[in-house]
Structure formats: structure tokens, C-alpha cells
Specification:
By secondary structure, this protein is of the alpha/beta class. The chain has one domain: Rossmann fold. It is built from eight helices and seven strands. Strands 3-2-1-4-5-6-7 form a seven-stranded parallel sheet, with helices on both faces. It binds NADP nicotinamide-adenine-dinucleotide phosphate. NADP nicotinamide-adenine-dinucleotide phosphate binds next to helix 1 and helix 4.
């Protein structure tokens, strides 16, 4: 197999950084991007090309960055939309600007970067676009609505993209991690907000303490195992050898259980309420 050329957003830590190292070790080429170029120097020393890219940059600026990226190896075969952050906080406490910033990075940023790369993939009638969704794209936890909303939005827009672009030989892949041990919930990456509304104050304090004491650095998922599966899926080897690569894949037992439970609950609801759900159609004209 000829080496693939990957471009990944958000490579300064976590899944992004690990993915770059694993891609290089499998013999592919990679353009590692991030908001702060200096944080990418160790990846550059390992053999990655690096570019400054903030997904909240303007479409014009991102288009120019992607032109530069394509010039490095002459093409991009795989785009990984990885960059994102989690803003926690109660609905009523998050300011409009905080909601907007969450969607700007996690949804609109993905749209802009993908729009900048799509014409290149369409022209070549080949390529894979990977999207890092989440268990939060299936389930909205209390105090996580902004993040969940952004991942639910991602699920919808990417499903549509899939149907529009598969005719051009473009493969879309939605990865849905559960809780994985990266810097995602660490101070500096996690953005959180203590409620000052008396009704939420205690629950909010408990939630923030829970994330710091029970989740950050204690998540059950091994990010290296997840990254190896993502590479297998794109390169159709390892766990994906000889298999039809699915459109979406949950990773982590927690995510698997959440989705299973939600599907079972939904099927139960559809069965119990089928008569009501389907009672609203106008009479058919024969
Ligand atoms: N870890 C989990 O439990 C988990 C679970 C489900 C889904 N995910 C998803 O996995 C992806 C990667 O997260 P991670 O776990 O690897 O977390 P992470 O260690 O916090 O990494 C997030 C990366 O995104 C970058 N980033 C944030 N905003 C950016 C922007 N505006 N432009 C460019 N880069 C930006 C960060 O860069 P800076 O250094 O500049 O901040 C960092 O490199 C995300 O899409 C996340 O939603 C993670």
C-alpha cells in the first residue's frame, strides 16, 4: 500500500498527538496542525510536517492553510477533524458567548476545515475524512449540554455529508470515544463554570469536584488503543482487515453501553407509542 498523507487538527495533545506518532510508525506521512506551533516541535522532530491551524480561523485563512498543506506532499489522503474542547456548566450559567465558542470550535471549525479540503478530495475522487465525535453525541449529561449539543450537531452534519460525498469515492468515518485518558478534562483544556444560581450551586460544585477527583487522569479508556483502531479502519488493516468499514464506531465499553441502552429504550418507546406516532398522517388518497 502506498503511504497515505494525513492532516490532523489539534495535535498538541491527546488523541491528535498520539495519532501522529502512530501514523509515522506505520510508514505514512502526516501534517500535524495545532494552535501553537511551538507545542508541535517534538512531533516535527519525529518526522511530521507541522502547520499552525486554529479551527476557529476564518474560512479564507483556513483555505490558505490547506493550500499550504497540500503543497507539502502534493496531496492529502486523510483529514482527521480531531480538535475540540469541552465547556461544562449549567444551561443558565453559560453565557451566549460561551455556547457560541463551543460550537465555533467543535462544529463550525470542523465545517470550515472540511470545506477547505473537500474540493481536493472530490477532484481526486478519493480520500477519507475522520470525525472525532463522542459518547456525548448520543447522550446529554447534566452540566455538559454545550459539549453534547456540539457533538450531536456533528453527528447530523456528517451523516448528511456522507450521503453527499460517497459517490465521489470519499469515505467518512465517525469515531465515538467514551471516556479516554487524555488531557481533555485537565486544567488548561477543560473549561468549566461554577454556578452562582443557588438552585444549581451545590450540584455544580459537586460536578466540578467529581471531574477533577474521579475523572481527570482516571478515565477507563486507553487512547493509544483507540488510535490504533482508527488507523486500522482508515488503512483497512488489523481489526478492519477484510471487513466493511462502518460509518460510525463507538470506542470504549462506557460508550458501547450508553448507545445500547439508548437504542433499546428508543425501540421500546417506538413499540409502545407506535399507534400515536403514526396517527398524525393525513388520510391517503387512493
Ligand atoms: N478524551 C476523551 O475522553 C474524549 C471522549 C470523547 C471524544 N473526545 C474527542 O477527541 C478529540 C480530541 O480530544 P482529546 O481527548 O485528545 O483532548 P485533548 O488532549 O484536550 O486535545 C484536544 C486538542 O484540541 C486542540 N484544540 C482545541 N481547540 C482548538 C482550536 N480552536 N483549534 C485547533 N486546535 C484546538 C487542543 O489544542 P491546544 O493545545 O491549543 O488547546 C488539543 O490539541 C476531541 O474532538 C474530543 O471531543 C475525547
Amino acid at each position: 500500500m502506498a503511504p497515505l498523507v494525513w492532516l490532523i487538527t489539534g495535535c498538541t495533545s491527546g488523541f491528535g498527538s498520539l495519532m501522529v506518532q502512530q501514523i509515522l510508525s506505520r510508514g505514512d506521512k502526516v501534517i500535524a496542525t495545532g494552535r501553537t506551533l511551538s507545542k508541535l516541535s517534538s512531533l516535527q522532530e519525529s518526522g511530521a510536517a507541522v502547520l499552525q491551524l486554529d479551527v476557529t480561523d476564518s474560512q479564507q485563512s483556513l483555505n490558505a492553510t490547506i493550500v499550504k498543506a497540500i503543497a507539502i506532499y502534493g496531496r492529502i489522503d486523510v483529514l482527521v477533524n480531531n480538535a475540540a474542547y469541552i465547556q461544562t456548566g449549567a444551561w443558565e450559567d453559560l453565557e451566549y458567548g460561551e455556547w457560541l465558542a463551543e460550537f465555533d470550535a467543535n462544529v463550525l471549525g470542523v465545517i470550515k476545515v472540511t470545506r477547505a479540503v473537500l474540493p481536493h478530495l472530490r477532484e481526486r475522487k478519493a480520500g477519507t475524512i475522520v470525525f472525532l465525535s463522542s459518547r456525548s453525541g448520543w447522550y446529554g449529561d447534566a452540566f455538559c449540554s454545550a459539549y453534547s449539543g456540539s457533538k450531536f450537531a456533528l453527528e447530523g452534519i456528517v451523516e448528511g455529508l456522507r450521503w453527499e460525498t460517497e459517490q465521489f469515492g470519499i469515505k467518512t468515518l465517525m469515531i465515538e470515544p467514551g471516556r479516554f485518558r487524555t488531557k481533555f478534562l485537565s486544567p488548561g483544556n477543560l473549561r468549566t463554570k461554577q454556578s452562582h444560581i443557588p438552585d444549581y450551586e451545590e450540584a455544580s460544585r459537586n460536578f466540578i469536584a467529581y471531574l477533577a477527583q474521579n475523572e481527570d487522569g482516571k478515565q477507563p479508556g486507553d487512547p493509544l488503543k483507540a488510535v490504533e483502531i482508527i488507523l486500522d479502519l482508515v488503512r483497512k488493516e488489523g481489526v478492519a482487515e477484510g471487513k466493511e468499514v462502518p460509518f460510525r464506531l463507538p470506542l470504549g465499553r462506557d460508550c458501547y453501553e450508553t448507545i445500547k441502552e439508548k437504542c433499546e429504550e428508543t425501540l421500546k418507546l417506538l413499540k409502545e407509542w407506535e399507534g400515536v406516532c403514526t396517527s398524525t398522517d393525513l388520510p391517503r388518497k387512493e
